[in-house]
Write a structure and sequence with these properties.
223 residues; alpha/beta; TIM Barrel; 2 domains; two-stranded antiparallel ribbon; elongated
């Protein structure tokens, strides 16, 4: 019985080897060994491919963000230390998000010379000049109403639009000021996220006019 079974198996294997399957595309050929897989892989993620977010605030030390365990709001000196640790781990880019001291309808600290993000940019670029510093360009954290733009109310009120409506073009003016302010402090990339119509074009125009035509814009409004 055993000999008969082995004979059947051998006969079956012979038929498999000799049969023409008609398969033209055999990508498994390129996955046969670890060396081949390493050579042919399409995507490989390394620390240098990531951008590390840092949340900077006024004051000293670090404050835990309760809704994000393990993540902290950092003072400028702590942000520098965190950026150095990231660089030592192979992460060569960070993105800065600012927490202002005070909020107002326009978000004035967002483009202030001594705003928290402006301070952080200068400090990080001074200590780690090779670090790529990306900056978030938006208004929501800086406005007292929490929207990503100037509201149609008070001195900004425009007839024909609902009260409280986010005004597009006045918001573009502010975003452009923020981007230029970050560029002046040494940012390598500005990253608008406010979802305003014409946002990238307005920022590009302002940067070019201020002499920063080579500064990249990384829009990540779709999120």
């Amino acid at each position: 019985m055993l000999e008969n079974r082995e004979s059947l198996i051998a006969n079956h294997q012979s038929k498999i080897v000799n049969r023409k399957s008609g398969i033209v595309n055999r990508p498994r050929r390129l996955r046969a060994t670890p060396a081949l897989r390493a050579m042919m892989r399409e995507t490989e993620l390394n620390p240098r491919d990531f951008i590390y977010p840092l949340f900077v605030r006024h004051g000293q030390g670090r404050s835990a963000i309760r809704s994000m365990p393990g993540v902290y709001q950092l003072s400028v000196d702590e942000a520098v230390r965190e950026a150095e640790a990231a660089m030592n781990a192979g992460v060569s880019a960070i993105i800065l998000f600012g927490i202002p001291l005070e909020k107002d309808p326009v978000g004035l600290e967002n483009f202030a010379e001594n705003g928290i993000v402006q301070q952080a940019i200068r400090a990080i670029k001074k200590e780690i000049p090779e670090m790529v510093v990306v900056t978030d360009v938006c208004l929501c954290e800086y406005t007292d109403h929490g929207h990503c733009g100037i509201l149609n109310t008070g001195e900004h009120f425009q007839m024909g639009l609902p009260e409280g409506y986010v005004l597009n073009d006045p918001t573009l003016d502010v975003l452009a000021k923020v981007a230029v302010s970050h560029a002046e402090c040494g940012a390598d990339i500005v990253a608008p996220s406010g979802m305003m119509d014409g946002m990238v074009a307005a920022i590009r125009s302002a940067l070019d006019e201020a002499g920063y035509e080579n500064l990249p814009i990384l829009s990540y409004a779709v999120k």
